[in-house]
Amino acid sequence: PWKMEITGNVSQAQTCNSGSESSVDPYGFERHQDFEPYKEMMNEYVAVLNRRSMRWSKLLQEKPHVEKNLTVKRYVRKGVPNEHRARIWMAASGAQEQLESNPGYYKSLLAAEHDGKLEETIRIDMHRTFPDNVLFKSKSEPSLQRALYNVLLAYGHHNEAVGYCQGMNFIAGYLIIITKDEEKSFWLMDALLGRILPDYYSSAMLGLKTDQEVLGELVKAKAPAVGQLMAQYPGIWTLVVSRWFICLYIDILPIETVLRVWDCLFYEGSKVLFRVALTLIIHHQPEILRARSLPDVCECFKQITCGAFTLDCHNFMQKIFTEPGSLSLTTIDKLREKCRQRIQEEASAQP
Ligand SMILES: *[C@@H]1O[C@H](CO)[C@@H](O)[C@H](O)[C@H]1NC(C)=O
């Protein structure tokens, strides 16, 4: 049976070592060249995790019900230990409340008659979801592929306007890895897609297109030189950041960093996605400004997501709350409205 051991020494992850050059991390991902830097980072991060873990246990002892207050917010920004992650995500996002007020709903979705086309689309993506994760291989016992399939199928029937589209498989996959529970993963999907993220996954993807433009506007204001560079290439924001937003940084940033971003995403909402993007861009301004062509820019936006800066998740998370400066929800709401209007006008102006 698989056990997530993240609070202990990371070398435990190597017990699942299958070959000399490939190792498996505590989430089941096979790691190749990047395992050494990851291990080195974890060996230092473990001290932080242990300290946070003790603080959290004390905090959660006081009250069984997790409320939202400034202390909890501060704690979330410093990272939720893995053993509390499912519980905190569930409480902070309202998913727990939904689960409790809809007993049996998830099971009933699975028991009902299914849309054959939806089933087929989901099935096609099964082997494309984390082929580098031992837990998702169809042969592994138990395979999380079954759970993944169920969660996506139930969600597709729950939210028929969205159904299924690519990107959702990765999100559901991460939720299953963390919660180890189909029903909780389903309600967390519902919180993310239905309440936290603005319309990223419907067929028109208006919310996604809007947020890409919003990021462009924020960059113009906070890193004008980069803004100018990007203005030379119309449509470039879609090319360089749509995957960042659609996959909520999965496979873009290292897994520990993604999970820390998600801690804040569930607690504070979608604003944190902009903080991450802005930090990556502002921090790497000199490199970006050296780009001389569209392919250069695209390559550079790939590079800035890798390396020590993003791997060191604890430091990175401190940076996202300082480096981009203030970022109010009012500003974002206004920009979203402005950009959404512009996109809709452009769409209707087209012949
Ligand atoms: C904030 O909420 C936590 C968890 O529910 C609780 O333990 C803590 O006492 C609360 N703090 C304040 C200042 O209310």
Automatic annotation (TrEMBL):
In terms of Pfam families, this protein maps to: RabGAP-TBC
Arranged from A to Z, the UniProt key words for this protein are:
GTPase activation
Q: Which domain of life is it from?
A: Eukaryota
The record's section on InterPro entries has: Rab-GAP-TBC_dom, Rab-GAP_TBC_sf, Rab_GAP_TBC_domain
Keyword Ubl conjugation, does the record have it?
no
| Positions of the Rab-GAP TBC domain | 79-269
Q: Name one GO molecular function term.
A: GTPase activator activity
- PANTHER family linked: GROWTH HORMONE-REGULATED TBC PROTEIN 1, RAB GTPASE-ACTIVATING PROTEIN 1-LIKE
Q: What does this protein do?
A: May act as a GTPase-activating protein for Rab family protein(s).
| Protein name listed in UniProt | Growth hormone-regulated TBC protein 1
Organism annotation: Sparus aurata
User: What gene name is listed for this protein?
Assistant: GRTP1
